[in-house]
């Protein structure tokens, strides 16, 4: 049986005292034949999801009951600030956390085994993800085959075990204070003995650690960090990116949110394209037209690598503004903004930038046409800054009235 209901916050309207839900996602239930139980999922879709034909990377969130709300807020904040792309979030509610997130461990002491109840079900949970959940998500939603998994504590242990067991299942591993005190034969082995074909490794692995000092957890985390770095340094053909970030100011409970905030930008660091900004940098790329082509080609290649469309709009917009700041390249700003419009023909921001470029070079009628398109598009949205687009058009009309024939 499948059901959905809104998860939301409440906004109080002081004018009418009415309550308006602000949804951040929905839940649904799927049945797992592998786990022999129903599992509740918490789903967050990007704001652009309903109006777009593109696919989105997916963040699979372990321990969703604790992590869903702050993960949604962090993802939206990072996307708004152009540090990561839009993404779908699939939170997985626990039923038996200790069972699902821990691998089999004959080395586990009797006391630890009694404390954990029924540990050792990680292989089954991996099978559930690989054979049931991921196919379901990629069939049901506009999900790209680019997958990130977030795991904290035992979830971090599960991340490490999954990477050792089946590194290609996820494209990126966001691993937070992993419980590496837990003994397991596989993850205690040296990297070189597990990953004998480095050319097959294609993943980004981010790992953080809070203020944990008890037992051997910190030592094993540092050992794993060294294993990653040594392997990367000695196997240049491995497509592996790694970052270890200690967070001693955080506790085991608080480290999750800042780790998502820091880890996701690391995973998507390649989308932060550095455009040429000076005349010398532009000439080094072969001139302004070549710089535009190079930008487009970079993001086309990135889209192929990530397996979803990585937007080039920010880079093209920045490039257009860079041209505008250089008197000899002003006219080429129009070309950059035109390509931007072609890549996102429904974007009011793209038309506004193109209109501004035309205005800067004195082609006022073309500027007016694009400002009008921008205003028409923005008025169909809830963007509270629509007045700026209207002001641009009104100011241009005044300028044209003062200069007939322009």
UniProtKB/TrEMBL annotation:
> Is the keyword Metal-binding assigned to this protein?
no
Q: Which PROSITE patterns match?
A: TPR, TPR_REGION
Ranges: TPR repeats: 348-381
* Alphabetical list of InterPro entries matching this protein: AB_hydrolase_fold (IPR029058), Esterase-like (IPR000801), Siderophore_Hydrolase_D (IPR052558), TPR-like_helical_dom_sf (IPR011990), TPR_rpt (IPR019734)
- Record GO terms (molecular function): hydrolase activity, acting on ester bonds
- State the UniProt keywords alphabetically: Hydrolase, TPR repeat
Question: What SUPFAM superfamilies does its record include?
Answer: alpha/beta-Hydrolases, TPR-like
UniProt entry tagged with the keyword Transcription: no
State the similarity comment. Belongs to the esterase D family.
What is the name listed in the Swiss-Prot or TrEMBL entry for this protein? Esterase
Q: Say which species the protein is native to.
A: Salegentibacter salinarum
């Amino acid at each position: 049986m499948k059901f959905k209901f809104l998860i939301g916050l409440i906004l109080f309207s002081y004018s009418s005292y009415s309550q308006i839900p602000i949804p951040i996602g929905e839940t649904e239930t799927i049945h797992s034949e592998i786990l022999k139980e129903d599992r509740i999922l918490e789903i967050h879709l990007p704001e652009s999801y309903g109006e777009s034909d593109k696919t989105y990377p997916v963040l699979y969130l372990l321990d969703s009951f604790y992590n869903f709300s702050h993960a949604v807020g962090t993802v939206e904040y990072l996307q708004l600030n152009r540090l990561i792309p839009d993404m779908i979030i699939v939170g997985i509610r626990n039923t038996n956390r200790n069972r699902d997130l821990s691998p089999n461990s004959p080395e586990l002491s009797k006391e630890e085994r009694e404390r954990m109840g029924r540990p050792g079900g990680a292989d089954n949970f991996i099978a559930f993800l690989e054979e049931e959940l991921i196919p379901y998500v990629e069939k049901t939603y506009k999900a790209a085959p680019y997958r990130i998994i977030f795991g904290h504590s035992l979830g971090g242990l599960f991340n490490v075990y999954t990477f050792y067991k089946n590194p290609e299942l996820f494209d990126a591993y966001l691993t937070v204070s992993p419980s590496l005190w837990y003994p397991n034969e596989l993850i205690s082995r040296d990297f070189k003995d597990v990953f004998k074909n480095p050319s097959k490794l294609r993943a980004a692995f981010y790992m953080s650690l809070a203020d944990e000092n008890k037992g051997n957890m910190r030592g094993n985390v540092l050992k794993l960090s060294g294993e990653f770095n040594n392997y990367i340094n000695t196997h240049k053909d491995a497509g592996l990116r790694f970052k270890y970030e200690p967070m001693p100011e955080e506790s085991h409970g608080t480290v999750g949110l800042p780790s998502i905030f820091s880890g996701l930008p690391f995973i998507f660091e390649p989308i932060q394209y550095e455009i040429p900004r000076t005349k010398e940098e532009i000439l080094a790329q072969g001139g302004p037209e070549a710089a535009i082509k190079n930008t487009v080609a970079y993001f086309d290649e990135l889209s192929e690598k990530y397996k979803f469309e990585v937007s080039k709009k920010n880079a093209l917009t920045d490039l257009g503004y860079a041209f505008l700041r250089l008197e000899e390249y002003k006219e080429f700003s129009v070309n950059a903004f035109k390509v931007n419009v072609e890549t996102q023909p429904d974007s009011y921001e793209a038309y506004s930038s193109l209109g501004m470029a035309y205005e800067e070079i004195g082609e006022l009628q073309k500027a007016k046409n694009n400002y009008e398109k921008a205003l028409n598009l923005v008025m169909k949205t809830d963007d509270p800054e629509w007045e700026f687009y209207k002001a641009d058009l009104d100011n241009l009309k005044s300028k044209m009235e003062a200069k007939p024939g322009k």
